[in-house]
């Protein structure tokens, strides 16, 4: 299930729970499903954040040598 699908399902669950329709057993089942989906969404967001952090650190470390080389060559020309 994608993040977007999980969020859509969570919205459905919240609407159903807020409506108050259904039995206590149905509400508990929906709550349990919602809790699992919320955990899955949190995990997906954590993974995305870690990936972005890793990409940014790779990008900044890849730029540093280039910047130093660029500065050195500019100084040599002056």
Keywords:
single chain; 78 residues; mainly alpha; rod-shaped
Word description of this protein:
Helix 1 packs antiparallel against helix 2. The termini are far apart. The protein has two helices and no strands. The model has no long low-confidence stretch (mean pLDDT 85). It is mainly alpha-helical and 78 residues long.
Give the arrangement of secondary structure elements.
Layout: H1 3-19, H2 24-77
Helix pairs in contact: 1-2
Helix content, binned percent: over 70%
What is the alpha-carbon Rg in Å? 24 Å
Biggest sheet details: none
Order of helices and strands: HH
- Stretches with pLDDT under 50, minimum 5 residues: none
Shape, principal axes of CA atoms: rod-shaped
- Measure the end-to-end span: 58 Å
Q: Please count the helical segments.
A: 2
Task: Tell me, rounded to a whole number, the average pLDDT.
Answer: 85
Strand content: under 5%
Which secondary-structure class do the elements indicate?
Answer: mainly alpha
Number of DSSP E strands: 0
């Amino acid at each position: 299930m994608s993040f977007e699908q999980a969020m859509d399902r969570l919205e459905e669950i919240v609407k159903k729970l807020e409506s108050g329709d259904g039995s206590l057993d149905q509400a508990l089942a929906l709550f349990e499903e919602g809790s699992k989906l919320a955990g899955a969404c949190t995990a997906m967001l954590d993974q995305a954040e870690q990936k972005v952090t890793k990409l940014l650190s790779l990008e900044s470390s890849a730029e540093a040598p280039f910047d130093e080389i660029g500065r050195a060559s500019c100084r040599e020309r002056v």
